[in-house]
Every structure is written in C-alpha cells, then in structure tokens.
Design goal:
Order of helices and strands of chain B: HEHEEHEHEHEHEEHEEEEEHHH
CATH class of chain A: Mainly Alpha
Number of helices of chain A: 15
Number of strands of chain A: 8
Bound molecules: iron/sulfur cluster
Shape of chain B: elongated
Number of helices of chain B: 10
CATH architecture of the largest domain in chain B: 3-Layer(aba) Sandwich
Helix content of chain B: 25-40%
CATH superfamily of chain A: Cytochrome-c3 Hydrogenase, chain B
Largest interface: A-B, 57 and 53 residues
Radius of gyration of chain A: 20 Å
Oligomer: heterodimer
CATH topology of the largest domain in chain B: Rossmann fold
Helix content of chain A: 40-55%
Strand order of the largest sheet of chain A: 1-2-3
CATH topology of chain A: Cytochrome-c3 Hydrogenase, chain B
Number of domains of chain A: 1
Strand content of chain A: 5-15%
Order of helices and strands of chain A: EHEEHHHHHEEHHHHHHEEEHHH
Strand order of the largest sheet of chain B: 2-1-3-4-5-10
Structural class of chain B: alpha/beta
CATH architecture of chain A: Orthogonal Bundle
Distance between the termini of chain A: 39 Å
Largest sheet of chain B: 6 strands, mixed
Strand content of chain B: 15-25%
CATH class of the largest domain in chain B: Alpha Beta
Chain lengths: 360, 299
C-alpha cells in the first residue's frame, strides 16, 4: 500500500480558526496525524502578567469567544478564592445563567459546523437560525453577541430586570421545540446516521487514556461533568442529569451536545425561578492578598482549570490554564485512524476543537 | 450593452476571509453572515469564496500573530492586486486586548494596505454588513476613478434599538481625574495628558473592545457606553476615531494651586446630600483641605 503525507489547513478542514495538520495516509485511509499548532498563539501567559486583575477580566474573555464567559468567571472564582470572597447568591445564579446561555450557543455552533462539513447546507443554516435566538438574547441582555462582560471580581455586573427575565424566559420557551427536533434529527435521520454513526469512534479505554473531557468524554460513557462532580456557584442547587452516550462516535458526541443544550434551557429556567434578591457583587474594589488558588468549571468543551498565584499586588504572579480542547486534540489520532480522508473535516469538528484556547 | 451590464451587476462580489490568530469571535460572527438570512452578505450581492485568487474583498480578523504571519502574507499575496482589504474587529488595527505581546506582530497596516476598518469586539453582524458596504463603495469608486462618496446618513435604523455595547462617550464635566478607567482598561484605549489648562482624556475607538469595564468602575458616570455601533470607516481616518474631553484645572480656593475639583456627581455618590461645608471643601487642594478640616498637619 502506498504511504502518502498530505497537509491540511483551515480551508480544507472547514475550520473557523487556523490549524494545520500533517496527515499520513495508507492508501486512502488515515494512518497517523501530526497537529501543527501555534497560529493563534497570542502570548496569553505573558500578557496576563502584564495586565492587572481587572484588565485580565476583559483580556481573558477574549482568550476564546466561543467559551468566552467560562474564562472570566473561572478566573474571578480563582481571585475570589485567594481573597476569601463569597459572592452574593444572586451573582451565583446570574453567572450560571450566563454560562448556560453560552453553552447552548456554543453547542449549536458546533453542530452547525459539522452539518456544513458534510455538505448538509440546509441543516447548517437551520441550526444557525435557531442559534440566532440565543445570539439575540445575548445582545439584548449583555450588549454583545459573543463577549458578555458579565463578570467582575466579587460577582457580576449585569442584572436581570423583571422585563429582561421574562424576555429570557420567552427565548427559552422558543428554544425547546427546535432543540427537541434537532436531537431527534441528529439521532435518527438516516442521512446523518449514515455520515455520523460509527464514524470517528473513540473507545472508552482510549478516552480514559487520553483523559478527554466534556462532551467528547461523555459520548464514551464517562460520567464526568464538573457541575456535578465538584459543584461551583449555584450548581449544587440546580437539578440536572449528566448527559451520557456510549457509542463514542460523532453521532454520540452530538447527541450529548444537543441533550445538554436542552438541559441548559431547563437550568436557565430554574435560575430564573429561584433567582434570589440581593446585591450583584460583594465589595467593588476588594483587597487581593498574596496566595494561590485553583478554580474549575465545566466550559462548553469540558473541564476548564485555572491556576492563579498572587503576591498582594494588583498583578498576578502566575496564571496557568488547562483547557478542555488540549486533551481532546490528542484523541483525534485514535478517532481518525483508518478513516477515509473525506471524513477528516467532520471528525475534527466533532471534537469541537478550540484553537484559540489551545494555542493561547 | 444594457444586457451585458446587467450580467456584470449580477456577478457576485467574492469575499475571502483570513484569520490571523483571532479569538474566533469575529470569525464566528462572519460565519453568521453566510448562514443567517437576516444578515446574509447575499443581500449586498456578495458571496464567500474559499480560494484566495477569486477574492474581490479580503476580510481579515485577529491581531496577526508572529506564527501566522508568513501564512497570512502568502495567502494575501495570492489575492488579486485590486482587492479591497477590510480589517474586521479592533484586533488587526490596534491589537485590541492582545497589544504589546511578543507573539503579536500587528498592526496589520505595517504589512499590507488596509482600506476599511470595522471596529467592534466582535462587531455585530449589522456592523459587519455596514463595513462590507463601505468596502463595496471603495471598490466602486476606485474602479470608476472617482472619489469615495461620503457615507450618507449614519444613523441607525430606529427599529434596531438593541442596547448593544457601542462607542464609549465621555462627559468631562463629571470627571474627577481618578483614572480608574485607564487602570481597568485591558486594551490600553484610554490616555490622560496633562496640559496647561487641564487634564485631557483621549479614548481610541480602534483600541477599545467595548467591554464597558471603564464605565462600570467610573465613580461618577463620566464614561458611559452608548448604543452607537456604526463605527466602520475608511482606514485613512483611523486616527480620527476618538472620544476626547478636557477637564479644566481650577485654582484652589485656599492657595491658588491648579486642581481638578471634585465633580458634583462624586460628592453625591459619597455623601448623598452634600452640605455647604462639603461643597466648600471640593474647591480646595488636598493640603488646604487637610488644613481646613483638621488644622495644620503635624509632621
Ligand atoms: S476583535 Fe475582539 S472578537 Fe475580534 S478577534 Fe479580536 S478579540 Fe476576538
Ligand atoms: S470599554 Fe472602556 S475599559 Fe473596555 S476597552 Fe473600551 S475604553 Fe477600555
């Protein structure tokens, strides 16, 4: 059999972000794969140390725009841990609302991009149109469709007025039917089944070995969701089930995402129903002592970890991340092995890779 | 001939995207302009292409990382010479929040000519469409050898009253020169200069990422977020996209030293209902204030 090496970039991979692969082929099947990262390396680790803790809220929101709320909220949680700040209960709920809104939009974007990658243009447009309900809600409540600017150290800096809350409740109502339909469609539609079932399989053992997280892990039956395993913020008072699948293929990953999006709708509704009255934020300008902390959260792509060290000044001494996409990239080697070249864009997009997060 | 012209008019203008290392915000919003009917670039007679050599308009996102530079320049060189280049988001223009990093090699203009800027972080789809319309106008004018038409009415449609986070506005009369805004601004968009007659604040709309943190922490509401998102402009006008204001010095009522008096907004924030005694203090420099309230300071 002939061995060949090809290079693929964002235009071939149907990626929004610049990522390059070197793929080794045996005949027309993938034998091995090298990821060539770095195009989106903006020197974040260096930048965060040159920005004070306040500036970092805005900077980190732009570490990646698809999970943009997870970054500042997890960062603020780390700062609050160092300073021993307990954020007001209302703020806990409002952070959860922001995170779940972003989760729905992020999961839908991932499903849309995959539909596009297999040439299902009508489905791509439909999913994007449904996602617009979320985009519109984000802009109406937060003032921007990607970067919500919801967090401050000590709480949040947006409020849900009764009108905004009822607007959001209405948007959630609007999401239910389309999300249920998409779930059935991605699960049972024969055309989508043909392209997505038993494709890009990640066996459970390999998943454990690669330490994958988020929907990629849950699609292999790994019951791990930070919101359940180590609840933060309001999540210990909210009711939901971890979405699980066992097949470990592209279809299973999307079923997990769509089930989660539907669950996020319910989580937001619960938040709206339980939203306690009270302040939005603890102290405006709290003292941040020297110390260190780790904060974790369940970002749309999985477990996100922040390590922060401070020295009592306004500037962090160290800030490090473990982003979910990092481990998921590694699993691509397993998923792609033996797959035809034509499946590469779909499988790559099925892990919902975030290059901005990984390259930083 | 007429038929010929019509055919040329129906030929879509091709848009080509280059991501130079963005946070993906601008790119995801650009994807919306190819997927969602309301914002589809087709309404402007445009269509996206995946081949560089077909590009009529090049849309560039991201701060231009060192690692992406060569690939970006290679792609750009493959686009036709008469293409119009659009910088999408503030990243390519100023670096946005990523400025001053060893890994960023912007601004984009150092490497290639930019025709139109669309500030925003990310710009909303309607802002993207407005910017692309501006690029179409530059293209038309250049082809016809005419000057670029002034953009007409820049007012936003009244129906579109979404409270989008847009241009920041500065009210110098409320500013107390505490400079908290500059302290919290991740993008370095705010500058203070001390002049003869007062302190001047300058805010660059091409650096600002519209996060609103400055206005959140501003104690007097001197900085506020407006809903004005129509900020697209010819790249040549980049340095005119600023918000400015001067806070005049006043002589201290005690010693005559020039000072920035406390604004009424601050007094109200601190004291609720300032009494005449407090009103008097606001026109004193710190030294005189101390003398007046606790006598001559002991050293
Ligand atoms: S301008 Fe803002 S949204 Fe656009 S790429 Fe830069 S940081 Fe991201
Ligand atoms: S909104 Fe204010 S703090 Fe945020 S980037 Fe603009 S000037 Fe800076």
């Amino acid at each position: 059999m002939t061995t060949k090496i090809i290079e693929m970039g964002p235009h071939q991979l149907a990626l929004e972000e610049p990522m390059y692969f070197r793929v080794q082929l045996e005949g027309d099947r993938v034998a091995d794969l090298d990821v060539m990262p770095g195009q989106v390396h903006r020197g974040m680790e260096h930048l965060v140390m040159r920005r004070n803790l306040y500036q970092n809220i805005t900077l980190l929101e732009r570490l990646c725009s698809l999970c943009s709320n997870s970054h500042p909220s997890t960062f603020c949680a780390a700062v609050e841990d160092v300073a021993g700040i307990a954020i007001p209960e209302r703020a806990e709920y409002l952070r959860a609302v922001a995170d779940e809104i972003k989760r729905i939009a992020s999961h839908l974007f991932c499903c849309a991009v995959q539909a596009n990658a297999i040439g299902e243009t009508t489905l791509f447009r439909r999913v994007m149109e449904i996602r617009e309900i979320m985009q519109r809600a984000k802009e109406a409540i937060y003032g921007n469709r990607m970067d919500l600017a919801a967090n401050v150290i000590g709480g949040v800096r947006y409020d849900l007025t009764p009108e905004a809350a009822s607007y959001l409740a209405q948007a959630m109502e609007q999401m239910k039917k389309p999300l249920d339909e998409l779930y059935l469609q991605f699960g049972n539609n024969p055309v989508l089944m043909g392209r997505m079932a038993w494709v890009g399989v990640l066996p459970r053992e390999a998943a454990v070995e690669c330490a994958v997280v988020g929907p990629v892990a849950r699609a292999c039956g790994i019951d791990y969701d930070v919101r359940k395993k180590s609840p933060y913020g309001a999540y210990d008072r909210l009711d939901f089930e971890v979405a699980l699948q066992t097949a470990g293929d592209v279809r299973a990953r999307n079923m997990v995402r769509l089930a989660e999006a539907r669950q996020s709708v319910s989580l937001i509704e619960q938040c709206l129903a339980k939203l306690p009255v009270g302040p939005l934020s603890a102290d405006t300008l709290p003292e941040i002592p020297a110390g260190e902390a780790i904060a974790k959260s369940e970002a749309p792509r999985g477990e996100l970890m922040y390590y922060l060290r401070t020295d009592g000044s306004d500037f962090p001494v160290r800030l490090k991340w473990r982003v979910p996409s990092y481990m998921n990239w590694d699993a691509l080697k397993v998923m792609l092995k033996g797959e035809p070249v034509a499946n590469i864009p779909l499988i790559v997009n099925s892990i919902d890779p975030c290059i901005a997060c990984t390259d930083r | 001939m007429a038929i010929q012209e019509q055919e040329t008019a129906a030929e879509p203008v091709r848009l080509f995207r280059i991501n130079t290392g963005s946070c993906n915000g601008c790119d995801v919003e650009l994807a919306v302009t190819s997927a969602v009917t309301e914002f589809d670039v087709e309404q402007l007679g445009c269509r996206y292409t995946e081949s560089a050599h077909e590009a009529d308009i090049v849309l560039i996102t991201g701060p231009l990382t060192v690692r992406a530079r060569d690939e970006v320049l290679r792609l750009y060189a493959a686009t036709p010479r008469d293409r119009i280049t659009v910088a999408v988001g503030v990243c390519p223009v100023s670096g946005g929040v990523f400025r001053d990093s060893y890994a960023v090699d912007g601004p984009l203009e150092r490497h290639l000519p930019v025709d139109v800027n669309i500030p925003g972080c990310p710009p909303r789809p309607l802002a993207l469409l407005a910017g692309i319309r501006q690029a179409l106008e530059v293209r038309r004018a250049r082809r016809a050898g005419e000057p670029i038409r002034e953009p007409g009415d820049r007012k936003q449609p009244a129906a579109d009253n979404f409270p989008a986070r847009g241009r920041l506005s500065f009210d110098a009369s409320a500013c107390v020169d505490c400079r908290m805004c500059r302290h919290v601004c991740a993008a370095g968009a705010i500058r203070f200069e001390e002049g003869e007659g007062g302190v001047r604040l300058t805010l660059w709309h091409n650096s600002c990422v519209f996060c609103g943190l400055c206005s959140h922490y501003c104690p007097t509401g001197a900085l506020s977020v407006t809903g004005d998102w129509r900020l697209d402009h010819p790249a040549a006008d980049a340095f005119r996209q600023v918000e400015r204001g001067e806070v005049p010095y006043q002589p201290c009522a005690g010693c005559g030293e020039p000072i920035i008096p406390a604004a009424p907004q601050l007094l109200h924030a601190v004291f609720r209902r300032p009494n005449p005694e407090i009103e008097k203090l606001k026109n004193l420099c710190p030294a005189c204030r101390q003398r007046m309230s606790i006598g001559v300071p002991r050293r």
